[in-house]
Design brief:
It is a single chain. The chain has about 120 residues and is of the alpha+beta class. The protein has one domain (about 5-120): Thiol Ester Dehydrase, Chain A (Roll), CATH 3.10.129.10. It has one helix spanning about 25-45; strands at about 5-10, 15-20, 25, 50-60, 70-80, 80-95, 105-120. It is elongated and about 55 Å long.
Length: about 120
Amino acid sequence: MIGLQVVHRRYVPYAHAHYAGNLVDGAYALGLFGDVATEVCIRADGDEGLFAGYADVRFLAPVRAGDVVEATAVLTRAGNRSRTLDLRLTVVCRGRPDVRPSAAEVLDPPLLAVTAVGTVVIP
């Protein structure tokens, strides 16, 4: 069970932009972390589990509408009912409206945008 990894990819729609420069708020990343954590719980325990809290959340780079992001959860500790997850959100593709309205590019390497440690519990 330790080392179990779940990855989700998602396009960030323009409807989620809240700030100048088409920036997306940090809560967007936390919502994606909840989704990957749920799948970890299902795979590890056969239950959706409940998110108990976040520790050491770091916003390292902007997430923008038009990005393709990858949310990753890795199970690092398993107690009797609690699980600890390392969480990462990376930007793997980014829109390039400076080139033309629909232009985009693959980021190589991906841009690390958000990290956190999460605790989930299994009822």
